[in-house]
Model the fold of this input.
Amino acid sequence: MLKIKSKKKQKVYRIGIDARFFGLENKGLGRYTNELIKWLENIDERIRKDNQSKKIEFYVFLRKNNFSEYIPQNKHFHKVLADFHWYSFAEQVRFPFLLNKYKLDLVHFPHFNVPLLYRKKFIVTVHDLILFHYPTVRNTTLNKFVYWFKLLMYHLVIRSTIRRSNLVVAISKFTKNDLITTLKTPSQKIEVIYEGAEFNLNKEHNVSEQQKNTFFKKYGIIKPYLLYVGNAYPHKNLERLVLVFKRLVQNGFDKQLVLVGKNDYFYQRLKKFIQNNKIKQVVVTDYVDDIDLEQLYQKAEVFIFPSLYEGFGLPPLEALGYGLPVISSNKSSLPEILEDKVIYFNPESKEDMANSILKYNQQTKISRVDIAKLKEKYSWHRMAKEIYQIYLKVL
Done:
């Protein structure tokens, strides 16, 4: 009697995503994680419809405070509670046991904080190596001895993470080169995959003149203004910017400088610096919602970004997406990402920064053609698609 061989059952791969940053608590990493999962769901759905080979189940690890916030739109994405705080003892000791419980074939960590005890296959996204280049106590509210201990642990964890990883995703060529030169990471182990950005040109809201006046009054904006959006960490170089602005105002520059960011320890310290140096015509808004932020972008004369170090540089890129002229630091990844679309200055030179501010009127608004090219190059969908291919490659 003939025996009919049964068709070999296809392996189902299990991929974990560390999504403990999901949501807005940590806006940069949170946004990266949100967009990654959102678009991975979409891409996975399309691939299944096309009956492509590998079958994958995704396990999304979340903390308690963001567990209900994530609602899977793809039945092959499963939520798992992993309520371990970032950079904690529980993360290092208990999280690996939870990951092992799910028998994962691959884990994607969107940040360097991979538990030292986790020894199975994983990839990691590295956004920057900021603390290797700016290891200063001014970057923290911690006691300086605690800070230096944490910095030592940071170096230990990230070096171990890079060494153990199967592949490293760098968000820019600059970050890739930084990994090669600073941590001696082999070039062939690193894939450059750009982040995405929002491009909101001509996205206007129906706002009456009265509402506009109320809006500007709300933030104390009474003159044409330069706009900055981001945090106030020391490497963002805002103290130098406001000193330059003070000198310009003293010489008759009749504009305002609007700084948008959450009113944390660093912004509070910056506000004291502004008060102590008697700098006028500077507005610090605190956190603003998305609708107000769009209004601030749309009504600004120019966007300024004086940062000394960026792994990618999302705020000035999104400012271009609003059609806003941009003047930017010429350091780190910024020339790579912003290309020839902006006016550059040396962020360590007050004179160069001042001259760039004075000549920004020569900077025309970015064209629709250029915005379309940027939108294609810096797309969250494209980013997730390339990362999905990385998963298949590593598997």
The chain has two domains: 12-196+379-394, 209-377. The two ends are 39 Å apart (CA to CA). Residues 209-377 form a domain with the Rossmann fold fold (CATH 3.40.50.2000).
